[in-house]
Please model this.
Amino acid sequence: MPVNGLGQYDDGNVFARILRGEIPCKRVYEDEFALAFHDIAPQAPLHVLVIPKTRYVSLADFSTGASEAEIAGFWRAVTTVAKQLELETPGYRVLTNMGPNSGQEVPHFHVHIFGGKPLGHMLVRT
Ligand code: AMP
Model:
């Protein structure tokens, strides 16, 4: 059982379907470890998702179960995508939601890259 509150990996999740080519995405980058594509509901001028090509439900699951090559390749892909989007100089934000309290909607590990404007406070203050 993966190490979080999300249960077993579900092959029907939307990112698994994108990886299998069953539904389209606006791809920005792909290599052997990762696929990056535009978020369908962007929350910044640039909002891209980076997902590993392997089946992990969350950051905790990925960190526990993935090989060192997968982990290194994935995180290298995240920074490669940001560089490709010309976000390195102006800066950007990387975020991952992990488990129920974070509001994680899609149970396939992914990180969000936000950029394209000053991003303000890290969290909405309540
Ligand atoms: P999270 O809440 O961290 O699980 O984020 C899931 C993200 O996936 C949200 O920002 C959604 O807008 C995005 N999303 C859901 N379905 C799709 C899709 N078919 N293509 C691109 N992004 C999607």
Observations:
- The pocket of adenosine monophosphate is lined by residues 14, 23, 25, 39-41, 49, 97, 103-106 (CB under 6 Å).
- The longest helix spans residues 68-84.
